Structure formats: C-alpha cells, structure tokens
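User: Sequence recovery, please. Input:
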C-alpha cells in the first residue's frame, strides 16, 4: 500500500525521504529551465557570483517579471517548492496573493445576482494583494547566500536597457490589447501607437527598474511600505480598487509542508493547499497505480486517466480552498482507500458523465502563468510557479510603478457553481473572504527516485495539474526532460464534461474510439502550457534540462 503524507506541520519536514538520505554526491553542474533565455541567463549569472539555487530562483523570477509580463511579476504571486541538499529539508513557500480587507463574498455580483466577469478579471478591483516580493525576501534570508541587492541586479539592468518583444508577448498582447488600452500607464509602457507591439520592438520599463531598486535596497519594505506602496495604493484606489496601505503592510509569507505520495517506486513531492495540484495529483496517481498503464491499449489508458482526472477535479471543486480558512480532508482525499472507491466507480467500457458523480447536485454545466526549474551544483532545487493569472493580469498598472496588477480574485468562487475565466467551478470552500488566498492549480513538483531527481511544472490555468500529471507519467517511463516538456497533452476538468486535446495528442482513430466510449473529445487548434524541467541522473552523473518547444523564447541551460 502506498503511503501519503500531507501534514501542514513544518516539524514533519525534518523527516528525510530515504532517497535523499541515501544520496551523498553532488550533481556538479547546475541546470536552469525557464520561459525566457534572459531569465535563464540571469539565474546562471547569480550562480556564478556565488549564489545557490534559491538566489538564482529570485533572479529568474525578477527577470521574468520584466521579460515575460504576460505571465508573472511583482504585482502577482505564486508557490516556491524548495529542497535543501545539505539536510534534505523541503518546504513550499506560499507567496500566493491575498484578498484585501475590503473584499467580500458578493463583491462581483450585479444587482441581479449575476457575476460581473469584467470586474473580476479587468482593472484594479480584480487584484489580490501581491506576494511575490515577500517571497523574494523570505527565500533570500532563510535559504539564500546573497542579498537581494545582488540577486535583483539582472532584472534591474534588463528593465532599464529593455527587452525585445517575442512571439508569445506579441500574441497574448493582441488578445488583451483592449484591456491594456483602458489604463494609461499600461498602454504607455507596452503599446505602440495604441496597438500591440510587433515582434522585435524593445520595451523599456524604467519605473519597474526603480521599484526593483527600492526592493534591492530595502527588502520587502521597499515594496510594501514607503514610496512604492504609496504609488501602488493611490493608483489602485483612484481607478476603483479597494487596496489600502494596511493591506500591503499586513502581507505575510506562509511556509507549508508539501504533499507527498508514492507512484511506481518513486516519491512525488508537490504543492499543498491553497494549491489544488498536490492533492489532485496524489488522488489521480492513487487511482491509476494498480493499473499497468504502459501495458494497456492507448485508448483504454487515456480513458482510465481521464476518468481519474474527472473525479479529482470534482473533489477540487467541492473540498479545496485556503487551508487557513477551510478544514480540508487531506488525509481522506490522498488515501489509497479513497482512491480504491473512486477506481471501483470507473467502468473500463464507458465514460462516467460528470453529472452522474456523487457530489453537489447544483453544479451547472485559458491562461497564463510561468514556471521555472532550478538545480544547482550542490543539489539544491527549486520548482517555482508564479502568476498574475490571465495574460497581463488585470491589465492595470498603477502610474509610476511599471508593474501590472494581478487578477487573482477571479480564482475565488465569485458565486457557487459559476465557472471562472478558466471554466473551473467552486463552492463555499473557495468563496471570497478578507485576507484569504484563492485556490490555485499551480503545481510545482519534485520527483524523487533512488536513481533520479527531477524538477518540473508548467503554466496553463486549469490544465496545469493534468499537464504535470502527464509529465510525471513520462518520467515514470524512464524518459528525459526534453520528452516531458514536449509530449502532446490532453485534459479533463469535470466541468465542462469533455476531453480537450492538443492537435497531435490523438489520432483520428483514437478520437473515434474515445467517443465510442461516451467521451466528448474536442481537439484544440492550439497548444497549451510552457513546461520546464531539469533532472539529475545519480546513476550516470548526468544533469539534463528541457524547455517547452511550444514557445521558442524559453531556454534550458546546464553549466
């Protein structure tokens, strides 16, 4: 029987996994895989100056805030999964955004009780209090070797000198350009004559460089108090938001124990709530464990995997939220006994309609973030998934700051059973409350076996969990990072009741066979995600890395 540990008591983190305790050697090389080559180089630059993986992660995150404003930034937050090689200590640093004090359950409902989606995703009212900068300071002080004044220098330099617009930024700006136009500071920073910038256009962000300099000089206090905080709050409130200086000053990091589970003889270490990823991954893998997936016909293998996805996303909607506000039945959801019951409900010859699953009978019938993976020459590891939610977040920029405010408030359940921008539904566990963290799908993950150690994750909204799952299953087959990040992807999230798939995920014959089982299969015209992974093969000593080929601006470098 598999053993799953999901405690939130940090003292339990001192228990070392056997695989870590047994391995004494160093990788000898460092590997960094990110969504942009300049961010990857920023991380290696800091390693070359004597920093460790934790310092490099700060440098990468700050650089991504400049070069990839579509996906993350200091106006957002996220999760940092850390492994310290010296003693095997593992922890997730939760820098997820928090609802401001003035937030309330019905803040996005109109007079008829319907969700006003524009308010929930566009403009300053959509933003939660950012946590990324608090994450910088915490990680630097507790785990790094270098001060922020060193680790932030690459990002400051890039913000002042400028970065060329790549295909990703240009494409996603085209999608959000109408919202960026609404806010003068954002329009001035990113648009060219009121239109989305072309590929190759150089964007310079001197205001963001100034903010980063304040953080480099004063730490988190340079962001959450003083001139920067005053500019942020003044801009937000003037444009209709509700943030206060007290909201910023009150933000705090939380360290959480990771979710742990076993699959195929290796240990999975992944994100706990308020991420839904770790619990969902443990639940899916528990359901699939007894089945020799690679021995099955591809259609049956996909069918069983989809049915496990369906049930995990059902439980996500019903049970999960911020663990500081909600009593989550972690032990139940991650137990093998519970998985056995779920597996018994799966018919091998027929899809289970989502409406037929036991649960809340009131359930009615996108996408950007960033992930990077870091391993230094000593074996320290970071899996970080950071976000501003939708591309360019809320599209709102407080004047004089150069930073985009997230729209993470949409990750709450604005109304029970009503889907958010990613089509995900939620109920009371994830309702809006002051100071609460919204539920997330971000799933930074370590995979540990006696022979291999891996770091992986991806952006992709509601699809993050299933993309990481497919990467884990590919690791289990013995494949390298380049394979995990490249393989075609498919997804099911309970509601809507359909399989979505990348163009090359299935053959026409496989689609026909899945539909004959009762699945609704929708083949997308575009690809998803932007996965980045690194791996150390202890048996061979080889360190490898892979960057998702779907976006050519990404880069994986081993040095």
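Assistant: Recovered sequence (559 residues):
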């Amino acid at each position: 029987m598999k053993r799953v540990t999901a405690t939130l008591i940090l003292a339990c983190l001192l228990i070392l996994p056997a695989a870590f305790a047994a391995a004494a050697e160093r990788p000898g090389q460092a590997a960094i895989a990110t969504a942009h080559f300049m961010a990857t180089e920023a991380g290696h630059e800091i390693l070359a100056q004597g920093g460790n993986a934790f310092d490099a992660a700060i440098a990468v995150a700050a650089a991504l805030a400049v070069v990839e404003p579509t996906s993350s930034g200091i106006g957002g937050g996220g999760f940092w999964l850390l492994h310290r090689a010296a003693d095997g200590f593992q922890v997730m640093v939760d820098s997820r955004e928090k609802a401001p004090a003035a937030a309330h359950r019905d803040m996005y409902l109109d007079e008829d009780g319907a969700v006003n989606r524009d308010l929930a995703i566009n403009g300053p009212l959509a933003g939660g209090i950012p946590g990324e900068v608090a994450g910088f300071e915490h990680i630097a002080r507790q785990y790094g070797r270098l001060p922020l004044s060193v680790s932030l220098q690459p990002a400051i330099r890039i913000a002042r000198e400028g970065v060329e617009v790549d295909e990703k930024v240009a494409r996603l700006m085209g999608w959000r350009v109408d919202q960026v136009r609404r806010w003068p500071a954002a329009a001035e920073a990113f648009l060219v004559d009121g239109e989305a910038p072309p590929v190759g256009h150089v964007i310079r962000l001197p205001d963001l460089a100034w903010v980063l300099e304040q953080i480099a000089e004063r730490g988190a206090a340079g962001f959450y108090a003083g001139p920067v905080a005053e500019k942020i709050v003044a801009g937000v409130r003037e444009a209709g938001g509700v943030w206060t200086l007290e909201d910023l000053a009150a933000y705090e990091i939380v360290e959480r124990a990771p979710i742990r589970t076993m699959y195929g003889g290796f240990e999975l270490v992944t994100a706990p709530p308020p991420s839904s990823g770790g619990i969902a991954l443990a639940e899916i893998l528990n359901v699939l464990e007894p089945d020799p997936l690679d021995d099955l016909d591809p259609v049956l293998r996909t069918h069983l995997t989809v049915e496990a996805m369906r049930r995990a996303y059902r439980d996500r909607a019903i049970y999960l939220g911020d663990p500081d506000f909600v009593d989550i039945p972690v032990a139940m959801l991650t137990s093998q006994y519970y998985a056995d019951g779920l597996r018994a409900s799966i018919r091998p010859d027929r899809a289970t309609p989502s409406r037929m699953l036991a649960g809340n009978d009131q359930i009615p019938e996108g996408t950007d973030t960033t992930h990077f993976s870091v391993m230094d020459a000593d074996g320290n590891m970071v899996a970080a998934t950071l976000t501003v939610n939708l591309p360019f977040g809320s599209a709102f920029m407080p004047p004089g700051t150069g930073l985009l405010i997230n729209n993470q408030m949409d990750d709450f359940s604005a109304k029970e059973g009503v889907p958010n921008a990613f089509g995900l539904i939620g109920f009371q566990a994830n309702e809006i409350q002051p100071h609460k963290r919204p539920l997330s799908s971000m799933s930074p993950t370590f995979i540990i076996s006696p022979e291999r150690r891996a770091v992986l994750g991806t952006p992709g909204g509601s699809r993050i969990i299933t993309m990481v799952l497919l990467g884990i299953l590919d690791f289990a087959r013995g494949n390298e990072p380049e394979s995990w990040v490249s393989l075609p992807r498919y997804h099911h999230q309970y509601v809507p009741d359909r399989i979505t798939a990348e163009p090359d995920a299935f053959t026409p014959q496989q689609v026909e066979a899945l539909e004959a089982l009762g699945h609704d299969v929708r083949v997308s015209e575009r690809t998803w995600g932007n996965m980045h992974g690194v791996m150390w093969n202890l048996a061979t000593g080889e360190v490898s890395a892979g960057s998702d080929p779907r976006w050519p601006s990404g880069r994986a470098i081993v040095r």
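The chain has a mean pLDDT of 90.
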